[in-house]
Every structure is written in structure tokens, then in C-alpha cells.
């Protein structure tokens, strides 16, 4: 599924227009498709209000109102900001009247069961004007089902900023042609409710898309019957200090359960003995960090990771450089994510910052990052020729050429210390088993979130812990591999 910017939608509309598809027809399709999407959510005797603005978002509301009224729904169409001013919306209002349909006066004292927001769409510039703010806050105070058309009024299409928190708080949003970036940014994303896209019959395509289960299935490596441990490569993870052994254990769990043939943990004596009790399959490079700094990389390593459970230091920086020089695909996490001018490496480098770490890398505030995480991750990836996995709800994966993905899986069960360590292990392991490093990164992030989704089918998200991945990974991977 593709994700769009406002300018892409305008271009698509313009192209359709040039090819003979009038905006009147597009709006007609939008209104009719919205009607079909909304039918399961509303009842004939619900008191429904459609709040229509003066632009084309308001025009969608006019068409929607006609379809609902023709089907016998109890709908009031109102224009609290004044009558439409765009040509297409005006044409649709004329047509609406020709069908003997009526509009109502805006009366905030009336009570409704369903409020449909067609006030502003992708033409929004913020902040909202006072008259719009009043209608939005009226809507949010009502005890009614709230449905937004295209985007909730008060958010923009491309940025996550919501000044003073004044935006229509939707239970459902129906986005025309495709979802917009702000659905996945913060705080805007918290105003959309359940979001679906509504086709208006135009061709899809964009440089940003959501990872799909089908794409993960299609790119997941086959396990041939003749395979042996060498087939699936040896992974190396530099992790853990005596006071943070758990992170190394969790990274080892993530790696060993995700397919790698063999796992070498570069760590301290003490951490090695802790790992050995939970992941007896691991082998060890003792005094790991120091040994790697001295250039000692074990043989046959096909993928590496560094960072879980170690703090930023000169030796971590040095070890990271040694690994970058080796040409082995490298995941850089936690303590190894340090600001540097140059991430030049011989093989792919994958940085996995959470917003706090990305803030340290870029000098931007966490708020700024969350409101614009897609573009910022993409910019960093392109500028530094690295892959950025910017973690959190809707993890962003940006590749050095600008190709960018949003991960749809995961939930608050992952908001626990240690789940990022598991992810690092998983990415390294999948780098070892996949031919294409991009597929490895996308698939690991998707499956990591899928584990949390599977957990929440039976248990509370509150109760999930990172060590649960030990038994969740087998279930998640079965769902991916089942149809192979
Ligand atoms: N391909 C598509 O996706 C289609 C989209 N359509 C609809 O067209 C919409 C875009 O239409 P428009 O470009 O007319 O944009 P809007 O309907 O968002 O209206 C923008 C107008 O609202 C006013 N406005 C903007 N910010 C404001 C603020 N902060 N306070 C008060 N008023 C403000 C301005 O006068 C601006 O011209 C989409 O969101 C969608 O609903 C459909 O009609 C047709 C097909
Ligand atoms: N609310 C959430 N929804 C989806 N994924 C989440 C959520 N909170 C955290 N995650 C995921 O959990 C992991 C946490 O990683 P990180 O912050 O590095 O934790 P740690 O360093 O403690 O292991 C990331 O993969 C992140 O995307
Ligand atoms: K809207």
C-alpha cells in the first residue's frame, strides 16, 4: 500500500484532468466510494451531520450527503464555514439541489449520533482559523461517532505537527486515493483512528509504501531439504558488558531464532556464561570488543551487529570502524550509534536508532523527529549512504537511495527495555540468510512487530517482555513460511 504527499495527489488529479477525467467525476467517485465504506458503520435512524468546508474536501461531503440521503439515511448537510468556493464543489452543490436535496443551517445545539468531517483536507495550512477551531472543538465534545474524510481537520497531509492539539479526533478516517504521511507521524497519527484508503479509480504508485505480509512472504528465504548449517551463514554480534548482560542475551535470542546457521557472540567472560544458559547454541569471542578493535574478526562471518548492552566509548567507535572496513553487512545499534561525519563502509551499514538516539545523531529534538520522521530518516539515509531503521510505532526504514518503507506491525507490548536488542539480533540473523540486504531488514522489522501482534491475540500487551520472543518467533515465522 502506497503513502502519498499532498503534492503527489495534486499531480495525480492534474494528470487525470489532462487525460479527460474531470474533477467533477473524481469527486463523484470519491463520494460514492465513501458512502459504501461508511455504510457498515452507520444506521438509517442515526442522526448524521456532514460538516462541509469551502474546498474540495467539502465537495466530497456534498456528494456523500446525496448518496446517503438517496439511500434513506437521516443526514444534515451543513456549511459552518460558508458555502463552497471551489468550482467543482459548487457544481456538485448545484447538482445536489437539482436532485431536490436540501442543506441545513449549522446549529451547534443540535445533537447527533454521527459526525462526518469534510471541513478541510489536503489543502490545509496550519494553524486553523478561529471559525474552524470552534467547529472542531464542538465535534470533539459531542458523544458521537466521528468519521474524517481524507484527513482529520487540523492535521496536514505531510507533517505531524498539530498546533495546540486542535484537530478532529476521528474514530475512523477514510483517505482518498491513498493514506497520507501524517497518518504515520506524531502527534497527527493519534487523530486518525482506524484508517482505510478509498480508491477513486486512479493508478497507484509512490516512493513510500507500507511493508505487506505478501512481500515478506515472497522474499523470505526457502529452506532447501539439502541445507546445512553452513547454508545459513555465521553471524557475529558484539554485545553486552558485565553490568548489562541481558541485552546480549536478548540479541542472541533474536538471532538464533531467526535462521542464522551459527552465532558468535563477542562479549565478556561473565556475559558469555549468562548467554550460554539461555542460548546454548551460541559460541563466543571472549574479550570480544577488544579483540574486534585489534582487527580480529572470526572467520566465515557473513553478517554482524554491534551495540546492544554496550556504552558509547572510543573502543566501541574503533570496533565499529573495523567492522565497517570489513565489508560485512553491519547493524549498528544502541551504544554503537555515535555521531560521526562519515559512515563510509565497504558493505551495507544499518543504523537502528530509537527517536532518542536519532536525536543525538542529528541534534534535532525528539518532537521534531516524531513530527517528520519519514523525511528525516530518508534524508539521513541518503546523505550518509546508510540504511536507517528509525524505531517506534510505524518504524521507518529508509535506504541510501531514498526508497522508504513504513512497518505496520507491532504494538505497545514492544515498549519495553530489551525489545530493540532482540530486533538487532533478528536483523543480523536475517542478513545472514537473505540474499538481498534490503529484504533482510524489512522482513526482520516486520516479523519483530508480528511477534507482538501474535502475543496480543491471547495476552495483555502490558505483560509482554522481550524474552517472550524466544517462543513468539517460532509462531511468527510459521505464519510467514506456511504458504511457501
Ligand atoms: N485524488 C483525490 O484524492 C481527490 C481528492 N478530493 C478532495 O479534495 C480535497 C482537497 O481539496 P482542496 O485543495 O480544495 O483543499 P481543502 O478542501 O482542504 O480546502 C482548502 C481550503 O481551505 C481553506 N483553509 C486551508 N487551511 C485553513 C485553515 N487553517 N483554516 C481555515 N481555512 C483553511 C483555504 O481556503 C484552502 O483553499 C482532498 O482533501 C479530498 O478530500 C476529491 O474531491 C477528488 C479526488
Ligand atoms: N508502541 C509501539 N508500537 C510498535 N512498536 C514499538 C512500540 N514501542 C516500541 N516499539 C518497538 O520496540 C523496539 C524498542 O527498541 P529500543 O527502544 O531500542 O529498546 P531497547 O533498547 O530497550 O531494546 C523497537 O523495535 C520499536 O520499534
Ligand atoms: K476532513
Automatic annotation (TrEMBL):
Domain YjeF N-terminal: 9-208
Ranges where the YjeF C-terminal domain occurs: 212-480
Gene3D superfamilies associated with the record: 3.40.1190.20, YjeF N-terminal domain
Residues bound to K(+): 57, 117, 153
UniProt-recorded Gene Ontology molecular function terms: ADP-dependent NAD(P)H-hydrate dehydratase activity; ATP binding; metal ion binding; NAD(P)HX epimerase activity
GO BP terms in the entry: metabolite repair; nicotinamide nucleotide metabolic process
Record key words, sorted: ATP-binding, Isomerase, Lyase, Metal-binding, Multifunctional enzyme, NAD, NADP, Nucleotide-binding, Potassium
Enzyme Commission number: 4.2.1.136, 5.1.99.6
Chain residues that bind AMP: 391-395, 420
Reactions that this protein is recorded to catalyse: (6R)-NADPHX = (6S)-NADPHX; (6S)-NADHX + ADP = AMP + phosphate + NADH + H(+); (6S)-NADPHX + ADP = AMP + phosphate + NADPH + H(+); (6R)-NADHX = (6S)-NADHX
Entry-linked InterPro entries: Carbohydrate_kinase_pred_CS, CARKD, Nnr, Ribokinase-like, YjeF_N_dom, YjeF_N_dom_sf
Record bears the keyword Isomerase: yes
HAMAP family hit by this protein: NADHX_dehydratase (MF_01965), NADHX_epimerase (MF_01966)
Function, in words: Bifunctional enzyme that catalyzes the epimerization of the S- and R-forms of NAD(P)HX and the dehydration of the S-form of NAD(P)HX at the expense of ADP, which is converted to AMP. This allows the repair of both epimers of NAD(P)HX, a damaged form of NAD(P)H that is a result of enzymatic or heat-dependent hydration.
Similarity section: Belongs to the NnrE/AIBP family. In the C-terminal section; belongs to the NnrD/CARKD family.
UniProt protein name: Bifunctional NAD(P)H-hydrate repair enzyme
Organism: Cerasibacillus quisquiliarum
Name of the gene: nnrD
Amino acid at each position: 500500500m502506497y503513502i502519498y504527499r499532498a503534492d503527489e495527489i495534486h499531480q495525480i488529479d492534474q494528470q487525470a484532468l489532462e487525460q479527460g477525467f474531470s474533477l467533477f467525476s473524481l469527486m463523484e467517485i470519491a463520494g460514492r466510494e465513501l458512502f459504501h465504506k461508511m455504510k457498515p458503520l452507520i444506521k438509517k435512524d442515526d442522526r448524521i451531520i456532514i460538516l462541509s468546508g469551502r474546498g474540495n474536501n467539502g465537495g466530497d461531503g456534498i456528494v456523500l450527503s446525496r448518496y446517503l440521503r438517496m439511500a434513506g439515511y437521516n443526514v444534515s448537510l451543513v456549511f459552518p464555514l460558508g458555502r463552497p468556493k471551489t468550482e467543482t464543489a459548487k457544481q456538485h452543490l448545484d447538482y445536489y439541489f437539482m436532485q431536490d436535496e436540501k442543506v441545513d443551517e449549522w446549529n451547534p445545539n443540535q445533537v447527533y449520533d454521527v459526525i462526518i468531517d469534510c471541513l478541510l483536507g489536503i489543502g490545509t495550512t496550519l494553524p486553523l482559523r478561529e471559525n474552524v477551531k470552534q467547529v472542531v472543538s464542538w465535534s470533539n465534545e459531542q458523544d458521537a461517532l466521528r468519521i474524517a474524510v481524507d484527513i482529520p481537520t487540523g492535521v496536514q497531509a505531510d507533517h505531524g505537527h498539530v498546533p495546540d492539539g486542535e484537530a478532529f479526533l476521528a474514530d475512523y478516517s477514510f483517505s482518498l486515493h491513498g493514506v497520507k504521511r501524517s497518518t504515520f507521524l506524531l502527534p497527527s497519527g493519534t487523530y486518525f483512528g482506524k484508517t482505510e484508503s478509498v480508491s477513486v479509480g486512479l493508478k497507484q504508485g509512490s516512493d513510500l509504501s507500507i511493508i505487506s505480509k505478501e512481500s515478506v512472504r515472497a522474499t523470505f528465504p526457502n529452506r532447501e531439504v539439502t541445507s546445512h548449517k553452513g547454508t545459513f551463514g555465521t553471524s557475529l554480534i558484539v554485545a553486552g558488558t558485565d553490568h548489562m548482560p541481558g541485552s546480549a542475551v536478548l540479541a542472541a535470542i533474536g538471532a538464533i531464532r531467526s535462521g542464522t546457521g551459527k552465532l558468535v557472540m563477542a562479549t565478556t567472560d561473565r556475559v558469555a556464561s549468562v548467554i550460554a544458559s539461555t542460548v546454548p547454541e551460541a559460541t563466543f569471542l571472549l574479550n570480544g570488543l577488544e579483540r574486534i578493535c585489534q582487527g580480529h574478526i572470526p572467520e566465515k562471518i557473513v553478517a554482524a551487529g554491534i551495540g546492544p548492552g554496550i556504552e558509547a566509548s572510543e573502543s566501541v567507535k574503533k570496533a565499529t570502524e573495523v567492522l565497517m572496513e570489513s565489508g560485512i553487512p553491519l547493524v549498528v545499534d544502541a551504544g554503537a550509534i555515535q555521531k560521526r561525519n562519515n559512515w563510509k563502509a565497504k558493505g551495507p551499514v544499518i543504523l537502528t536508532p530509537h527517536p532518542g538516539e536519532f536525536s543525538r545523531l542529528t541534534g534535532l529534538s525528539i518532537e521534531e523527529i516524531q513530527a517528520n520522521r519519514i523525511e528525516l530518516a530518508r534524508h539521513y539515509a541518503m546523505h550518509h549512504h546508510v540504511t536507517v531503521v528509525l524505531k517506534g510505532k510505524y518504524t521507518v526504514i529508509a535506504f541510501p537511495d531514498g526508497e522508504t518503507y513504513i512497518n505496520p506491525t507491532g504494538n505497545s507490548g514492544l515498549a519495553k527495555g530489551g525489545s530493540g536488542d532482540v530486533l538487532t539480533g533478528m536483523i543480523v540473523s536475517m542478513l545472514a540468510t537473505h540474499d538481498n540486504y534490503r529484504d533482510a531488514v524489512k522482513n526482520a522489522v516486520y516479523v519483530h512487530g508480528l511477534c507482538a501482534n501474535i502475543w496480543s491475540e491471547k495476552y495483555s500487551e502490558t505483560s509482554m517482555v522481550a524474552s517472550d520472543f524466544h517462543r513468539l518467533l517460532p509462531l511468527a515465522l510459521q505464519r510467514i513460511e506456511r504458504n511457501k
